Request: fold
Amino acid sequence: MTCEESRLLIAEELFGARSANEELEKHLASCEACRTEAEPVRKVWRQMASLPEPEPRPGMATRFYAALDAYQQAQSEKASRGFWAWWPSKPVWQFAVSMGCLAVGLLCGTFFFPRITAPASSGEIAQLRKEMSGMRQLVTLSLLQQQSASERLRGVTWSYRAESNDVEVLGALLQTIGSDTNVGVRLAAVDALRNFGNSPVARRGLRNGLARQESPLVQISIIDALTEMRDSEAIPAMQAVLQMPVLDANVRQRIKEALENLKK
Reply:
């Protein structure tokens, strides 16, 4: 008998699957390693077998059957409630489920029943437009006052969303053309003023700013804007600029072309 076979027989003996075996006993008598391994295990197993059978505590059966009856009764009540059997018992989860159902209902009403909603009155629409216009004006004026040139350019971009009769935005653009230190911002402001072409204030501001500009690029942009607006009142201002002793050649040429177009 090998050592592996002896270990298997010992395990079967301990679990009651096999009674004492003579061959096993002979192997244990001749093999010290298997005997040293088997004796402690057999001793512990004999001590465990000598332990008394545990007795259940008094009242255990009563408590068990009471718990079983309570479980069966809860299951019966849950089945009788039908749909409400799935409703959570804790208030916090009840509130969460209620809010979820409300959100789903609102979404379904918005997508599937849009015509049921009562139309807004003309007064409400006008008030909403007024508020939106005020918001755009506020953002434009705020950005145009920033120290960063990129932020001021954003302000000029926002001015395109303003109403064509917005005096506040118009004044801010004219001030930007006259005093902004960045040429790119001034050029963008001149382009934005084209949206106010019907305003006499915008035309007068461009005419007055033409002679005060030091950048030829801004001067040419103003000349083109006035020409596009067909502002014949800009002719004296352009002629005055032609008389300046120091004038960029490109600006001089563009003024001559503009004067020809405005005089037609």
Q: What stands out?
A: Residues 82 and 100 are 21 Å apart (CA to CA).
